[in-house]
Amino acid sequence: MGHRARHPRRPGHRADLPLRPQRARVGGGAPGAHAAGPRAHLRPHGGQHLPRRRPSRSAVPHAPRGRVGRLPDPDPGPLPLQRRHPPRRRRHRCTRLQRRPQDPRRPQGPPVIVDGTVGVLGEDQLEAVHERAMTILEDIGVEIRQEAACRLLAAEGQKVEDSRVRLDRHFVEAMVARAPERFTLRARNPDRSVTLGGGSLVHTPSGGAPFCSDLERGRRDGTLADHVELVKLAHAAPVLRCQQSGVVEANDLDDRSRHLDMDYTVLRWSDKPYICYGGSGSRAADAVDLAAVIAGGREALERDAWIVGVVNSNSPLVWDRAMVDALTVWAEANQAIAITPFLLVGATAPLGLAGGLAQQVAEALAGLALAQLIRPGVPCVFGSFLSAVDMRSGGPAFGMPGGVLGTLAGGQIARRYGVPYRGGGGLCSGMTVDAQSATESLNMLWATYLSGCDLVLHAAGWLEAGLTTSYEKLALDVEVLSMFEAMREGIITDEEHFAIDTIREEGPGGMFLAAPHTLEHFRDWVWMSPLFRSDAHANWVKRGSPDAGQVATQAWHRLLDGYEDPGIDAGTDAELVACVERARRRIGAA
Amino acid sequence: MGHRARHPRRPGHRADLPLRPQRARVGGGAPGAHAAGPRAHLRPHGGQHLPRRRPSRSAVPHAPRGRVGRLPDPDPGPLPLQRRHPPRRRRHRCTRLQRRPQDPRRPQGPPVIVDGTVGVLGEDQLEAVHERAMTILEDIGVEIRQEAACRLLAAEGQKVEDSRVRLDRHFVEAMVARAPERFTLRARNPDRSVTLGGGSLVHTPSGGAPFCSDLERGRRDGTLADHVELVKLAHAAPVLRCQQSGVVEANDLDDRSRHLDMDYTVLRWSDKPYICYGGSGSRAADAVDLAAVIAGGREALERDAWIVGVVNSNSPLVWDRAMVDALTVWAEANQAIAITPFLLVGATAPLGLAGGLAQQVAEALAGLALAQLIRPGVPCVFGSFLSAVDMRSGGPAFGMPGGVLGTLAGGQIARRYGVPYRGGGGLCSGMTVDAQSATESLNMLWATYLSGCDLVLHAAGWLEAGLTTSYEKLALDVEVLSMFEAMREGIITDEEHFAIDTIREEGPGGMFLAAPHTLEHFRDWVWMSPLFRSDAHANWVKRGSPDAGQVATQAWHRLLDGYEDPGIDAGTDAELVACVERARRRIGAA
Asked: Helix (H, G, I), strand (E, B), or coil: what is residue A203?
């Protein structure tokens, strides 16, 4: 059960970079010529106390590189996740399962767990949730407020009275069995395609917020310019392997057609894969049309998933027309669908977590069954978005014990049904980049990693219960996600890491700071970030006593400065623009 | 492997407390008569924006009560931890093992893990660490700079050259086998005694800091008055089950005798058990003399552990005279000893985590073997305090991936040797109560819970790499620890929590906020704290846009206001005072 021996990856020769702990000392020296920069007028602090560029290594743009240890063996052998979560009830299914991960050097599974299933539900508890969910589907039923879907389900022998649909468990289980355990989400740059499934931990930035904020420009209505900037930030952060259209709402544009502009800017300024929202059948169709351009036509599009469309049930137990329309469009195009009930226990679900989970399963599987009925084998993602309500304000309380337990249970449930899992994220209710929002986000990100989420929406930038996408929070979350990636690399126990000879040489009372072994490895083995520093109090005061939010302002600027336009083929770009304009004319928008 | 069914604990009748989400709305109404309070002159904000008392329920003083779910069955049956970590190499040992937890209603083990060993080392990696540690002890040896200890070890056939001692692995293993797997730490109030072992998660406040700080009075040299206040805060927080003498240094007192005053104030103002530091043999003896007063004499003292004394090796591989003197005094008195190498990988240990762990085992087991040689069966705690160095400042970087992995590995190592584990804590390098310190602390607290630490020093209040004990950080950490305790209660899957009838009644499109089931249970089932709120942005602005640090100021005031003097028997108190004065005269201090 232990980690397999790993072949050391030889670091570059670093003799030209001796250890000089003082060279990056903060506050030392005046800010260089770069400190002003093109946005200096926007920054009230003017970089005086907080020089924008530092000689120290920025962790942000190099997130997935080896830190604590080295990358695992390029040939990982049988996937450890298979061992941790043995396939159940799905052994003989024919799916588009990819047995090998996309990037074989990427660590697999939760960060720090050896030989164990991570979860909060025992086997019998998991079955109890399933049983109650089936009871809800069979006895109570769901409202499906779209006639075509009701007709389809009735034709399969399901009980339909007006829009109330009662689903038979055998039908539901047969439909669930059609969904693949893993699938590839294609990007216009093939190197950026990702596999979803098996604990893939594909992170996207936050999305859907009407507001955005940063410490320099304040909290404001989002615009398309903000959207572009945030897309570029997400593109520049390697740990965010997937984009999200609508990372902030482009409120300056006509709301009937801004989804087109937001999708287009994602496609133009990033070559990572992306997820998008439907909102209606026609918007979902617009997303499909744009995706078809990069896929090379509708036929090519239908061979693979090029987008993940997000649909939410209207909890409790309602699938409304707009959502079913969107789900139908995506299913017909064989595009991936993330089906996520938005459950606030005590408001849109009963107060007990157990009941919330049962309702979540009922709602998600109703949507999933419908999608599989429309297009057998269409990739579906089982979504969890379950939180407690703060009974004092009626608002969602993110990052609290109920949300953590719900996220962990959701992972077990998704594995039980053998479909990829969307859950977790850097969710918080905090209003500002402070200890509250950090605590809440960290709780959720630990749950994200421990439950082995496959698709993580809102992994970075989420603030104020999702109403605001924060630039500083995005930079902080990216650093935290990089920490988790470093933790997933685990502890390497080869002779070089044991360094017994070095211990012998230093001997009792020695000091390793200047040891050749330390000088050789500290740049590759030590996780250091400009955001998370250990400094003397006096030096920190000399720097103007910045809190982490202020330091994060520099971090997102550094990230944005490091953004490189991936470029786009001129013909593809023209086609995308034409597609957007056609749709805009059809809508009749400005 | 599932959770066993739990008998519901009937909540009190709550019909007199209807759900009124608006009644505790923040910013509504003027602060009440209590808002000024005796410390109003110390609070620049005067409670205007941040009224000190709120009608909302304070989570702080009620930390261990049921939140997300109910307390587990009072009869927990075989301990789940035993199942998760089957005893190895220790099956036939005769120890003071307690098979039943002290408080049977307290949840056992890590918070959220079902059926798995939580760790980062595979079985073979764990053995590799052990092997290298034995190599260090046998081939390199440790310096033990105290003659009596060297003589004792030589008499057992160990190789002693000057102060360099090379220990045979069979000798070390035989000594380790003498240490109990669990033991009871007695408190002067018997109801407050705790069991250490088996994942007991006994938390203490931070300690050893020269400075303390709060947002009202600023950062300052600690005094005895601060020490008393912090002891009272820790006493008032149920989640801190153990005190720590020296929660801040009483810098206003003579440094030759202030340990007496700090120990005395812990004993006077709290009736919880406590840990203390030695620093020298005579200080360790003073601690023993005071503990003997509450135990009822030296003979009674030696029957149980009444204190945990902390000793640190002087890494790498040195046990200096003062520490060995203290260890000897405590071992002779049969008091518990926490043995903790303080390892900074890349400074006091080699850069690789693997080497750091091997060195940690070598140093800790050398101390443990010596203690067991002096007094067979004396309770010992295997300590881990392993962090990376921030290579830019040379300071310890707490809460980073290396520290998390080291903490998790330490738990596996301690279980391998079958001794209780001291590790984790709310450690951080951040300078202020901000997103950095919260992120670092949360990482370490997740590692604390996942590794099932037994004794958690510095669980609350740690700031600035331990140089400062922060009142606000203490209040925040106490809230976070309460969240973990709620998570440990897991998900209850009885019919009341499934609430299928309620789902049926509300039906598709319903709303659970005012459902009788919600009204009946929301006070017991929902985790709510005044510190972590979900509020509308406009309300938050109306309240003066407080960050979590400012909110935490109210929280520690609330905690301190809730402190109740446990009282002390007048005769015992007089004996303690006499004991302190005798020692002070002996020392010749003022």
From this structure: strand
Distance CA A109, CA A112 (A): 9
pLDDT tens digits along A70-99: 222 223 222 222 223 333 333 333 222 222
**Main-chain phi, psi angles of B470, to 5 degrees:** -100, 130
| B chain contacts of residue A349, beta-carbon cutoff 8 Å | 512
* DSSP 8-state symbol, A39: T
Interface predicted TM-score of the whole assembly (ipTM), two decimals: 0.84
Cβ atoms within 10 A of the Cβ of A577, count? 13
For A90-120, letters b (16+ CB in 10 Å) and e give: beeeebebbeebbeeebbbbbbbbbebbbbb
Q: Rounding to the nearest 10 degrees, give the CA dihedral for residues A537, A539, A544, A547.
A: -50
| Contact: B401, A483; criterion CB under 8 Å | yes
pLDDT tens, position by position, B228-282: 999 999 999 999 999 999 999 999 999 999 999 999 999 999 999 999 987 899 9
Which residues of chain B are modeled with pLDDT < 50?
1-112, 114-117
- Residue-wise pLDDT for A512-533, tens only, equals 999 999 999 998 898 888 899 9
* pLDDT for res B98: 27
Tell me what pLDDT residue A409 has. Answer: 94
> CB-based burial of residue B16 (10 Å sphere; 0-12 exposed, 13-18 middle, 19+ buried)?
exposed
Give one DSSP letter per residue of A329-358, joined into a string: HHHHTT-EEEE--EEEETTTB-SSHHHHHH
- Stretches where chain A sits below pLDDT 70 are 1-117, 590
Q: Angle A321-332/A353-374 helices, nearest 10 degrees?
A: 50
pLDDT at A590: 67
Q: Are A366 and A410 in contact (CB under 8 A)?
A: no
Which residues of A are less than 8 Å from B123 in CB distance? Answer: 1-2
Cβ density class B124-138: b for 16+ within 10 Å, e for less: ebbebbbebbbbbbb
- The nearest CA of chain B is from the CA of A523 a distance in Å of 9
Residue of A142, A435, A540 lying closest to B549 (CB–CB): A435
Q: How far is B537 from chain A (nearest CA, A)?
A: 7
- Residue B542: Cβ within 10 Å count: 14
Nearest to B395 among A129, A396, A534 (CB): A534
Which residues on neighbouring strands pair with residue B183, listed in sequence order?
A: B196
Phi/psi region, residue B332 (left: phi>0; alpha: psi -120 to 50; beta: rest), is alpha
Token pair 């109650």: residue: A132
